[in-house]
Amino acid sequence: MSQTALTEKRNPDTTNIDLMDASQIAKTLNNEDKKVALAVEKTLPQIAEAIEIIAQAFRRGGRLAYFGAGTSGRLGVLDASECWPTFGVEHGMVCGYIAGGDRALRFSIENSEDSAELAIADLKNFAPTEKDVIVGISANGGPRYVLTILQEAQKLGCTTIGISSNPEAKLKQFSSIFINPVVGEEPITGSSRMKSGTAQKMILNMLSTGAMIRIGKTYENYMIDLRMMNEKLVDRGTRIVSEIAHISYDEASKILEASGKKVKTACVMAIKNISKEEAEQLLAQADGILRKVIA
Fold first, then answer.
1. What residues act catalytically?
2. Which of 2, 129, 151, 192 has the fewest CB atoms within 10 Å, measured from its CB?
3. pLDDT in tens, 82-136
4. Dihedral angle, C-alpha 52, 58, 63, 65, nearest 10 °
């Protein structure tokens, strides 16, 4: 009999959860969730190493791709999807794949995690090169889909990162960096969408956000490359220009419009009192890093 993974073991602190009232259930689940951040904290050295490797990949024209099944795959797709509007990156720079394809985002296709064929097809669709970073995400670290992805990616010369809540995860052997938040047994036995999923969400946030910060996609803690696709984001962009350039909201709005709705360009135009073309030239010379231009 195979050894039971930590993510599949029973949690001794929640054995009577079915006897609790709603308030007790909420408190119990909250207490379990408190353990997640502490588990992630212990993996910060590996997370930091991964952030720097991803940033280096971006600088040399590489990409980041997440692969997972079930909850893990959905979280990867979510994080990848948010990079385009938040940091203004080109589509394809950060990609997310889930075993079973887009249908698996809404419906459970459980047998897809056991398919090496689906893994090969998705990896071929991404078409990785040695410049790229491949992240395999799995609570127990053993699905054939994720293992195949990481194994094949290593053969292609990619840097591979494995994320799993199981210290004995099989994906560890195919991971250049192994990020292992040991969150313990799930409140509901085997329901890894809970603590393991929360840990994965936290780590993916750190990887993408940290790498974007490292390549100059923020100024201080402002998202200066956001894409202003709706009224809320136009308002946010205008406020960012107003605050960075120390000008009125109305003036920021006019300069932002003249910049082609590019926050970084508008900031340089306002602070240096120059044209859009001159601002873009300065930014290009500084590799797009706003702080280098206006410091």
1. 82, 113
2. 2
3. 999 999 999 999 999 999 999 988 998 778 988 999 999 999 999 999 999 999 9
4. 30
Chain centre distance of CA 188: 26
Q: Collect all residues with Cβ–Cβ distance below 8 Å to 28 and sequence separation of at least 6.
A: 13, 14, 17, 20, 187
Instruction: Read off the tokens for 264.
Output: 């970084």
| pTM score of the predicted model | 0.93
The rounded distance, in Å, linking the Cα atoms of 199 and 203 is 6
Give the contacts of 107 (CB within 8 A, at least 6 positions apart): none
* DSSP reduced 3-state for 119: helix
Q: Which of 125, 179, 175, 131 is nearest to 157 (CA)?
A: 131
CA 163, CA 56: separation in Å to the nearest integer?
20
62 alpha carbon, distance to own chain's centre: 16
CA 6 to CA 165: how far, in whole Å? 8
Identify which of 250, 251, 285 has the alpha carbon closest to the alpha carbon of residue 271: 251
